[in-house]
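Lecture notes, unit on protein representations.

Consider one protein chain, 172 amino acids long.
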Amino acid sequence: MARYEELPYRPCVGMMLINRAGLVFIGCRTGGPEHMDGTHAWQMPQGGVDEGENTYKAALRELYEETNVRSVSLLAESKDWYFYDIPRELASKAWSGKYRGQKQKWYALRFTGDDSEIDIAHPAGGKHEPEFAEWRWEKMERLPAMIIPFKQKVYEQVIEEFRQFGARAAQS
């Protein structure tokens, strides 16, 4: 395995799915080497970008594969890529030891469907393994405290960039 400092970042997308009340979808992960405890197992949907794949199409694909959701409208794309490093002790376990962390392009999406569309037990119409054990709508400002500590800064940056979309929905 290459030295930790020399490992690349895994290209990834993240989706802030916002409902009509201005709340954000979060799911409790079913597992994985980067999830340390029950308190910090919650996150917004995210996933890898395939070689040559458009990031917005990757975001829609990942959202469907994790939540079964397709009823969305695009609100915004993050201006920049956000980066985080995974702790050294987890680097050999996560992503087969190929990456030191992730670089993420984030999308704010308005959920235009009904909650009944969300099916974390049978995502992608049952064609994808569940990644979340439970889900709920949550206030944006509460998200950083629920995510694993090494991703908190990214969540704070994403919230700052997309905050207006939650506030607008809550006012309308």
